[in-house]
Amino acid sequence: MTQDSEQIHTDLQLDSKLDSVDRGEELVLEAARGLGFDDDEIHRIGIAVRESLVNAVTHGNRFHGRKKVHLRVLVAPHQLTVEIGDEGAGFTREAVPDPLSAENLLRHSGRGLLMMQAFMDEFTVTPREGAGSLVRMIKKRQPGSTAGPAPA
What we know:
Blueprint: E1 7-15, H1 18-34, H2 39-60, E2 68-76, E3 79-85, H3 111-119, E4 122-127, E5 133-140
Antiparallel strand pairs: 1-2, 2-3, 3-5, 4-5
């Protein structure tokens, strides 16, 4: 459910291919630039979005040709919301090994989730209606930022 001030910037289905990751990331970064995020914030948003899209393609949908990655980008005057869903078996954050625990330091599993959580202001994973998981990330523009949305 969107807040009254949020507008849909992007709402589409991407193929379960790594080429879709580039397309999806660019659409999100376009929205972030339009909201006036600075270069450092855009870089962090890009990393979080790329990690989530790669996870949806590889771990969620496992490159399955008929499964789609769902990308929804919502914009509000000082906030960017990105929702990325897959059609896989689903997962919970608790089931992913903690990449910071001693026994997992050399494993790659969980590092993307850690980056998403670190680079975005809000990060949740919930079951997606139907099948799969839905990652929801929110980045708020810092108070005092002088940049505003790009003119229409």
